[in-house]
Amino acid sequence: MRDSWPLGVMRGRRGRAEANVRVSPSTYQEVSDLLSRADGSQRIVPVGGRSAVTGAVELAPGDLALDLTGLDQVLEIDEHNLTARVQAGVNGWELEKGLNERGLTLGHYPSSLPVATIGGLISTRSSGQQSTLFGNIEDLVLSLTVCLPDGTLAEARPGPRSAVGPALHELFIGAEGGLGVVLEAVLRLSRLPAASLGRGWDFAELDAGLEAMREIVQLGIRPLVMRLYDREDTAFQQSDAEGCLLVVGVAGEPGVAAAAMNVVESVCAAAGGRELGEGPFLRWRERRFHLSRDRLLESLKPPGSFVDTIEVAAAWDRLPPLHGDVKSLLAAEGIGLCHFSHAYPQGCCAYFTFAGSAGSEEEAEAAYQRCWAGTMESCLRLGATIGHHHGVGQVRAPWVRDEMGGWWQVWERVRSSLDPKGVMNPNAVGTRTPRRSS
To answer: β-pairing, 44-47 with 64-67?
Structure first.
């Protein structure tokens, strides 16, 4: 059993076998009983929708998959206080549709939403397409119920915020099943925006588009979506843009949305953008789940093919050199595209896509590895983070210590304290030492 990591899929084309031993608990007590009996001779890997693309879920012989999709209940939706209490196996898209029927939203729209589970989104420290407005998953999780590696249950704490010690539940947001099992989450909801407006702009130069994005968020505007495509990626968007396409959408009460769009229009005009109307925004909204897991797996069927995405993030002044470095090395292996999204006042995410084909499976893997290694090394050299929202898994493991620096010791001590027997996912956040012999 494995997730949707492209390299894992590529190796599967060569006949690499998958371990597939699983248990599917229906109660928290069953999870607790399983972990309390574990002695480290068998690693336990929590599994949700398997939409992750990093190799965090890849069972080796002897590992046990803890399939959490049976814990799929929406336990409570509190419309007055705008919270939801849901189990880890709840499907993200089904939850969002149910909330929308009540005039509510979680506002978390990763492209994997139709197949992802809430537990998986939490464990990978996910970000959605509307994160600039609604926040990333760590902003949406108020509290968690988790099962620790010794079987102890730590239950969700109350309140919209607490100053009674650190928010220790945040240790599990992005831990990839390495510290325990996320069973339940209390989530922060929002009301569905009453109005949304969107436009597209054509910028002759990428730097001008990036400056427009920076100005918009630094003026205090929080767009529903804001995505800038470089020239090569713009060509794939079926728009009228001749340079670099910027798509911006805003949402809220009608007057608020209109005022925000006025600011966006003014900034884009001052930066030299040519307005393209609402067509690019509507097309983005219609195609927001176009890069699905099924489409990724389909593209990896031909022998010798390779394709993947690499999402990183950097401060505004480091994005242009990062883009130039990475695009050059990706283009040397095949096709290289990039768009910028998930904007903050301090910087944003650069989302690279690469693809190509080789004469053999060995050559395809070598090209794939060069794309990843070159991008990671560019990030470390230029002061960018090596991962924005897909997690770590195996694909980023070689560079985790370099980014974390002294914090790597903190992570290792937390992990060894909570899981001294080495029970939990060995592929989580930088990987772990080999399992003990039985």
So the answer is: parallel
